[in-house]
Amino acid sequence: MSKEESVKLTKSDIRKTMFRWYFSTEMPLNYERMQSVAFTYALIPVLKKLYKNKEDLKEALQRHLELFNTNATAGGLILGTVLAMEEDKANGGGVTGQSIIGIKTGLMGPVAAFGDSFSAGTLQTLCILAASTLAVSGSYFGLVMLFLGNFILMTELFLTTNLTYSKGREAIKDVLSSRTMTDVLEGANILGMMMMGALTASMVRLETVLSVKFGETEMLIQENIDRLIPGLFALLTLLLFYYLINKKNLSISKIIFGTIIASVALSFLGIV
């Protein structure tokens, strides 16, 4: 393809692709193809612009319907790379369809690990924690914090997509393998664990009303436990949930219903 016939993507094309990806990521999620339907949907306007030939367009749509699953906002690292590669391929560059599939498949795991620990596990968790705390106190700023969390994630998607589109496919390797990113991920994991500990201590309540009598003296078990290890039952509850999820592979819905049933039963028996 000559320079006169070459097709270049605009900032508007990239923004439209990002928004389509962000708002559709979880909608068509399925066990056969995971997020590939949403990813293909996001790319359709761009692919139609790049490939005027019907067969070329069909081939492009088919390769993006291959199984794909990653973090939505950190996934901008892959989205920008794919946009650059598709543009290069459509303009007669050396990129092949298989290389595009290979890049997507090879990077979706590392990008998901980065996004789930930093974006979802830290940034989003902190905003939800702040929103929950404000909501409990009756403040409408809790809603503002939720919007702030979404704004931060959208900003991440914008930056990662534009970075890899403008810098090329090598940029994502530099980002994920850099020492700075390793330190950021480690710090994010530590901060995330601290926040989960603070959330457990402030939001989880489990106290027993049982007491023990020694002659005429009645001793409340909860008071004595609080003197030794405050919040012990809340900590044990957290560890139990972690064990059930991590070791027994119980779903969140089963744990929620189990907790409700156990709470009602223990309350009925006069234990808590």
Automatic annotation (TrEMBL):
Give any Gene Ontology cellular component: plasma membrane
Q: Does the keyword Membrane apply?
A: yes
Q: InterPro entries attached here? A: GatZ_KbaZ_carbometab, PTS_IID_man
Is the Transferase keyword given for this protein? no
A Pfam family annotated for this UniProt entry: EIID-AGA
Q: Name one GO biological process term.
A: phosphoenolpyruvate-dependent sugar phosphotransferase system
Q: Which UniProt keywords apply?
A: Membrane, Transmembrane, Transmembrane helix
Could you list the residue ranges that cross the membrane? 126-153, 187-206, 227-245, 251-271
Q: Which domain of life is it from?
A: Bacteria
Coiled-coil zones: none
Return the protein name.
PTS system mannose/fructose/sorbose-specific IID component
